[in-house]
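Standup notes
- DV: blocked on the single-chain target, sequence here:
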Amino acid sequence: MHRIGENEFMQSADSPLAEGDVEAFTGLSFFPPDSTFRLVVRPDFRDAGKPATLLDTKGKERSYVVHARLPLAHDGTAFTLTVYRTPEDDQHLFLPFQDATTGEESYDVGRYVELEPGPDGTLVVDFNYAYNPYCAYSDRWACPLVPEENRAPLPIRAGEKKYH
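- DV (later): unblocked, structure below
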């Protein structure tokens, strides 16, 4: 259902596609759903509130705040990713990441994933919902770049693939 909604959005008046590309749009590509990429994580809040600056694809600095670090593991590989939020909004959590598929199977800049609150103070990271930022579809958009610390050392074959 989510994937149908994403494709419908791409053909709507609010589409991030470049003008004229909406008519030629044939659909987004996704990795097959993989339940092993839905992780329930206990966040590490030691750096919570620390200011962070991320550059975007047009070289502009964007201000964020570290929300937490997420100690993750998949198929025997442990890694940590940092979750951000804007200084004004502590509800919207932003997890930009790159992985071993970046630049080949997934978008060169990286992908983003939204987080859900889980039980007992945990966060749910479901990479099956990973998506490309708007700059993947048109150069009229500027998107935050993935910081070095958010490069996962394994392929995350879940969520949206590179747009062609």
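- Follow-up: The longest strand covers residues 61-74.
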